[in-house]
């Protein structure tokens, strides 16, 4: 019941945001706030790091994976603002963002961050081949240094490097000694079996943890967005969720405006990136991705309105 109430609150707040973000300047302000929020979070994590106790950091603010993804998302927006505005202030937080993402030990956030940088750089320069090759070379070089640091610097290797190795071995051979990977594979398997028992409407929101607790005497969520939704609200609920989620992606792909490409590409990557990671995390009830989804809806509405105005002006000039 608590989860249902949380989702209801998210919907009300997000619906209000759609009506509030009626100008592109307000949307820019919202995304810049994500960068500033990520910066404050990164600084807070940094100030609370205890180097005498090497482990995954970030739990002072919540789940390490969640904090890693939030700061990685801030990084995507920050890089995008820099590439399109060329204002140095937007690139300044990136070294700190990258460092904290690594120190959270989140594989998802690390991969999301690296691929996001490549995507934003590619989309920014795709119309200029020489500039694209130059920028991609520099970005790839930075990522190579980034990977070298992960596997060569002891603190990074102990926190994230070993976890990336374990993931690689599991994906390539199907075998691993890491407990979290084994546990999550089991969670997905059991979750799919529970879904098959009540495929249409499921067991109710957030009831995966109840079923898992009844079986293993420890209530846990599934770490898989698809499984969590299938078990909770069945095919019907998953379909309704995906209808809006994939609709947001479609609108961003086809809603073009040269002036606001930085917003469009960064929103598109973040929303699609989360979707691509659905099998590795639960985010249907996440506040930040829900707000980003509704911000993308506001962007589409505002952009459509501006495009119509421009077409009207163009037609009047021809007359």
TrEMBL record:
<keyword id="KW-0436">Ligase</keyword>
<protein>
    <submittedName>
        <fullName>O-antigen ligase family protein</fullName>
    </submittedName>
</protein>
<keyword id="KW-1133">Transmembrane helix</keyword>
<feature type="transmembrane region" description="Helical">
    <location>
        <begin position="267"/>
        <end position="284"/>
    </location>
</feature>
<keyword id="KW-0472">Membrane</keyword>
<dbReference type="Pfam" id="PF04932">
    <property type="entry name" value="Wzy_C"/>
</dbReference>
<feature type="transmembrane region" description="Helical">
    <location>
        <begin position="226"/>
        <end position="246"/>
    </location>
</feature>
<dbReference type="InterPro" id="IPR007016">
    <property type="entry name" value="O-antigen_ligase-rel_domated"/>
</dbReference>
<feature type="transmembrane region" description="Helical">
    <location>
        <begin position="96"/>
        <end position="123"/>
    </location>
</feature>
<dbReference type="InterPro" id="IPR051533">
    <property type="entry name" value="WaaL-like"/>
</dbReference>
<feature type="transmembrane region" description="Helical">
    <location>
        <begin position="26"/>
        <end position="47"/>
    </location>
</feature>
<feature type="transmembrane region" description="Helical">
    <location>
        <begin position="135"/>
        <end position="160"/>
    </location>
</feature>
<feature type="domain" description="O-antigen ligase-related">
    <location>
        <begin position="96"/>
        <end position="242"/>
    </location>
</feature>
<feature type="transmembrane region" description="Helical">
    <location>
        <begin position="67"/>
        <end position="84"/>
    </location>
</feature>
<keyword id="KW-0812">Transmembrane</keyword>
<dbReference type="GO" id="GO:0016020">
    <property type="term" value="C:membrane"/>
</dbReference>
<dbReference type="GO" id="GO:0016874">
    <property type="term" value="F:ligase activity"/>
</dbReference>
């Amino acid at each position: 019941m608590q989860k249902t109430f949380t989702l209801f609150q998210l919907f009300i707040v997000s619906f209000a945001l759609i009506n509030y973000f009626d100008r592109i300047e307000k949307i820019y302000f919202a995304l810049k706030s994500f960068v500033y929020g990520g910066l404050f979070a990164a600084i807070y994590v940094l100030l609370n790091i205890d180097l005498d106790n090497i482990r995954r950091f970030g739990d002072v603010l919540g789940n390490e994976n969640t904090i890693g993804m939030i700061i990685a998302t801030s990084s995507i927006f920050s890089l995008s603002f820099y590439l399109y505005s060329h204002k140095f202030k937007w690139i300044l937080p990136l070294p700190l963002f990258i460092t904290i993402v690594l120190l959270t030990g989140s594989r998802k956030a690390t991969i999301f961050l690296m691929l996001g940088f490549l995507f934003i750089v590619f989309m920014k320069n795709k119309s200029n081949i020489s500039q694209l090759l130059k920028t991609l070379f520099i970005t790839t070089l930075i990522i190579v240094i980034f990977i070298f640091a992960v596997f060569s610097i002891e603190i990074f290797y102990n926190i994230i490097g070993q976890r990336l190795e374990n993931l690689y071995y599991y994906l390539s051979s199907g075998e691993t000694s890491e407990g979290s990977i084994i546990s999550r594979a089991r969670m997905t398997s059991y979750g799919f079996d529970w879904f098959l028992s009540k495929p249409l409407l499921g067991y109710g929101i957030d009831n995966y943890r109840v079923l898992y607790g009844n079986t293993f005497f420890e209530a846990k969520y599934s770490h898989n967005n698809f499984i969590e939704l299938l078990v909770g609200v069945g095919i019907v609920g998953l379909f309704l969720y995906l209808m809006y989620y994939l609709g947001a992606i479609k609108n961003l792909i086809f809603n073009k405006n040269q002036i606001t490409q930085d917003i469009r590409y960064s929103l598109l990557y973040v929303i699609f990136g989360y979707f691509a990671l659905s099998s590795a995390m639960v985010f249907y009830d996440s506040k930040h991705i829900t707000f980003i989804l509704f911000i993308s809806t506001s962007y589409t509405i505002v952009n459509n309105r501006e495009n119509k105005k421009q077409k009207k002006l163009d037609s009047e000039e021809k007359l």
